[in-house]
Amino acid sequence: MSRRDLWEPGGAIPPGDPTARTLGRTLRECGQQRAADDILTATFTELRDAQISVQKSCALTGLSRATYYRRVNPKGPMHGPWLPRTPPPAALTDAERAAVTDLLNSPTYRDLAIPQVWARELDEGRYWCSVSTMYRIARTAGQVSERRRLATHPPRVRPELVAHGPSEVWSWDITALKGPVKGVWYKCYVILDIFSRYVTGWLVAAAEDAVVAKDFLADAVTRNGFEPHTIHADRGGAMVSKPVSELLTDLGVLRSHSRPRTSNDNPYSEAQFKTMKYVPDFPERFGSLADARTFCEGFFLAYNHEHRHSGIGMHTPASVHFGTAEQVQVQRQATLNRAYAQHPERFARRPRPPALPEVAWINQPAEQPQPAP
Q: Fewer Cβ in 10 A, N or C end of the chain?
């Protein structure tokens, strides 16, 4: 196979890539490795004898410059640790570096930043080194750190709440509803039970207010009949306000708050708001405050008593909250049993209704190791 044959459109080298390196690689693949290496090495030697530069000779023959330099200056295998790096000729001597360290630690400059020291020394007619070199010297001495007293904040504790039944843990939040014109918003307060998903209270107001939030929570607890163990919320202004805090303290209800900028610490309220705003009849804007209240009244009534929630075994929130879900579960099982008795061939196994929830949690608590008996 000749060089011309390899460069033909039907040859081994693809059109548009007739390079020496490709030619050599193709010859090696065809079993001509030694012959190709000998030819290219001889050609490279002739080019160098003709005073052609190493870079151009390598480009013409396809040899690597690194290969050429290794052959010119062969070195045996290296063992042991790496040799110390030769300092550049412009580097400071050890004495000069020690002088810079003494300068930075002097009583005049020890409380100043390095750029301040460099500029003041330059104004005095003394140049020691560059600012970056001063930083490198100080870093080597372990003196590059924040020396000011900075405020430290303890890590936020992740809220971990568990509910094994209704009225144990409630979650509440406030969402915005678009008003009739741009810039007008109504505030929708919603509180729900995380175990049953039952909305124990809702309110649409013209603005977010701490006193309104306090009255809203007090009314929800009163209508429920008894206080929950914990009420969870994010860190909005109304949620952490003094009136709300005093109310929950008076009621003996524990407060829980999301971590800052952590939206999934309040998942039940966020999911409920999405359910509300994604219903087909949710309007683009509400014409008035009364219009928003009318819509929310119909929505929350249907949500509590008609909507079958996938998170609670396809039961309604009211059924789980008020304890009728067990009876509904028995009726569902009876219906499935009749269907199975009529056509058992249609079922791979005996059908069961979706199971009722046993526990609900916000940030599932990690299992703590039990002490050995």
A: C
